[in-house]
Specification:
This protein has 259 residues and is mostly beta strands. It folds into 2 domains: 159 residues, Porin (Beta Barrel), CATH 2.40.160.20; 54 residues. The chain has 1 helix and 11 strands, in the order H-E-E-E-E-E-E-E-E-E-E-E. Strands 1-2-3-7-8-9-10-11 form an 8-stranded antiparallel beta barrel. Strand 9 and strand 10 form a beta hairpin. The termini are far apart.
């Protein structure tokens, strides 16, 4: 066999080996050259500063006390429990060192005039009402003819100082790879006030729960803003003489940071 032909036959396996090695290298490099996966906008631990306000109350679901305002200022802590491409499930607790309730108050001034012996007395009392206060006035005489009376009722408000905590809570953020994430939220806890709310014969210690919807706007992977609307309920769970309960539609905003 000529020497040149023998050289070509020996070279064929070498060329095949080089082609195979090149093919394997390309296959190994292909995943590295693929588009990187979009990271999650999420944090393992989050801390927040929050403010919430409701300008009115009504019978939304359970509460009967009307025209109550609610203001809350506090902090929150969230811990990620589970995350995938669809949902980010978090524990969420809130501490509310400032929890203010405002009740409508009726200021009643009455004057009584007696005929025998002649005497006139005037008194003024203030008390929160279970419904929205309505100004009124009137006069009359006693059935036995012993005297007459007049009265005037004016409306005002009182702010009751309190504090609260919601140690039981969860939040579900959807589409966690996006910077704008809709979420569901719910909490359970308590509220303690320096006076009975919403009326005199209610209790100073009340249970609370809320649930709502919102959107979380991520400015970076560690910082975000939350804006939400919640149904918020306050009730003494019949531990006091009466339990009208308070339903508020609560707007809340939070600044959240963590890693």
């Amino acid at each position: 066999m000529p020497k040149s032909r023998w050289f070509c036959l020996r070279r064929v396996p070498c060329d095949l080996s080089l082609v195979a090695l090149l093919f394997i290298s390309i296959c190994q490099l292909s995943p590295a050259q693929a588009a990187p996966e979009i990271p999650f906008y999420s944090r393992a631990n989050s801390f927040g500063i929050l403010a919430a306000y409701s300008d009115d109350s009504s019978h939304i679901l359970l509460g009967l006390a009307e025209n109550r305002k609610l203001l809350q200022i506090g902090v929150s802590y969230s811990r990620r429990l589970f995350i995938d491409r669809m949902v980010n499930w978090q524990y969420d607790g809130e501490l509310l060192p400032v929890a203010l309730d405002s009740d409508p108050v009726e200021n009643l001034t009455s004057t009584v005039t007696f005929t025998n012996p002649p005497m006139t007395t005037t008194s003024t009392t203030s008390f929160p009402t279970s419904t929205a206060c309505q100004p009124s006035s009137g006069s009359g005489t006693f059935p036995d003819g012993s005297g007459s009376y007049t009265y005037t009722a004016n409306c005002g408000r009182r702010w009751v100082v309190g504090e609260g905590m919601s140690p039981i809570g969860f939040q579900w953020n959807f589409m966690p790879r996006r910077k704008q994430q809709p979420f569901l939220v719910g909490h359970g806890g308590y509220m303690y006030s320096t006076q009975p709310i919403p009326v005199v014969d209610s209790g100073s210690f009340n249970f609370t729960f809320d649930f709502g919807v919102g959107v979380e706007l991520y400015r970076s992977h560690s910082r975000s803003l939350r804006v939400e609307y919640r149904y918020h309920h306050i009730s003494n769970h019949n531990t006091a003489e009466i339990n009208p309960g308070i339903d508020n539609g609560l707007f809340q905003a939070s600044y959240v940071f963590g890693r």
